[in-house]
Design a protein that fits this description.
Layout (H helix, E strand, L loop, with lengths): L13 E2 L1 H9 L6 H9 L14 E2 H11 L47
Antiparallel strand pairs: 1-2
Helix pairs in contact: 1-2
Length: 114
């Protein structure tokens, strides 16, 4: 007896990795999803919720859509890249610069402090 394959529309709100894996990768590769999802958690993949016993499915779908450019929300810069997103370069403060002490102001020998 063959059962109907799982799709995004048929998943519960909180689904196990096997269920999400079947919707994303197909029935034959569904077990691969758990390992892939753990690697992607550091990039924002929703984590397993211990209370509900699964991952939040709309969050997983949104994460995958953003990862593959199917969302209008695009990050300003990739993870780990810093930049100036306001178009203004940082400038040194104006005013007199600190001056080094003149040779005559310095002690002539070594200074020992106890």
């Amino acid at each position: 007896m063959s059962r109907t394959p799982l799709t995004w529309d048929r998943l519960p709100l909180f689904a196990t990795d096997d269920e999400i894996g079947e919707a994303v990768l197909g029935r034959d590769r569904r077990r691969e999803f758990a390992g892939i999802a753990q690697l992607l958690e550091r990039d924002g993949m929703p984590k397993m919720c211990p209370v509900w016993g699964g991952r939040y499915v709309p969050g997983v779908k949104r994460f995958l859509d953003v990862q593959h450019g199917l969302s209008a929300a695009v990050p300003f810069a990739p993870n780990g890249v810093e930049g100036n997103f306001h178009g203004q370069a940082k400038r040194a403060p104006k005013g007199p610069r600190p001056q080094m002490a003149k040779e005559a102001d310095r002690p002539s020998g070594p200074v020992l402090v106890r």
